[in-house]
Amino acid sequence: MFLLRPLTQDDLDQATIVETFFREVEAEGERLFVTGIVLCETCWALRGYGHSRSEIAAALEKLLDTAIFEIQDRELVRRSLVQYWQGPADFADYLIGWQNRQAGCADTVTFDGKLKGALGYTLLGKPSSTSPSESP
């Protein structure tokens, strides 16, 4: 995922290539489309690199404020980011909720206990004690 290289600087050669590409895109007056799922994957990858919640949120803000990126559902991403800064759930959970509301859903139904009491979410039964990667 090329967005990670400049954010993590984990491979300086690739980071330089990506940063050069970004400058070329900007010089040509072009924009790069970034989907919501790419933003979610970026969050998960940054977490895997050991980045804190505040560092991940700051990285998302940086992407949102970078002119060459056309962010899918930019306003929903901004709303999700506000919730991510303030709440305990993952960025993806908040983005899913906002996308569902935009589609006309009253609530997003979940087992995720981190969303208990969050506006727009209905918690079903007992919250799951396993992460999605541990579930069958």
Account of the protein in words:
It is a single chain. The chain is mainly alpha-helical and 136 residues long. It has one domain (4-105). 52% of the residues lie in helices and 9% in strands. The chain is built from six helices and four strands; from the N terminus they run ααβααβααββ. The protein has helices at residues 4-8, 12-27, 36-48, 53-64, 74-86, 91-102; strands at 32-34, 69-71, 108-110, 121-123. The strands form two sheets. Strands 1-2 form a two-stranded parallel ribbon. Strands 3-4 form a two-stranded parallel sheet. α3 (36-48) packs antiparallel against α4. The longest helix has 16 residues, at 12-27. It is globular, with a radius of gyration of 17 Å. It starts with a helix and ends in a 13-residue tail after the last strand.
Give the helix/strand layout.
Elements: H1 4-8, H2 12-27, E1 32-34, H3 36-48, H4 53-64, E2 69-71, H5 74-86, H6 91-102, E3 108-110, E4 121-123
Parallel strand pairs: 1-2, 3-4
Helix pairs in contact: 3-4, 4-5, 5-6
List the total number of helices: 6
Q: Strand arrangement, largest sheet?
A: 1-2
Task: Please outline the major beta sheet.
Answer: 2 strands, parallel
Rg over C-alpha atoms, rounded to the nearest angstrom? 17 Å
Structural class: mainly alpha
Query: How many E strands?
Result: 4
What gap, in angstroms, lies between the N and C termini?
Answer: 27 Å
Q: What percent of residues adopt helix (DSSP H or I)?
A: 40-55%
Report the average pLDDT across residues: 92
Number of domains: 1
Strand fraction equals 5-15%
Shape: globular
Which runs of at least 5 residues are low in confidence (pLDDT < 50)?
A: none
Order of helices and strands: HHEHHEHHEE
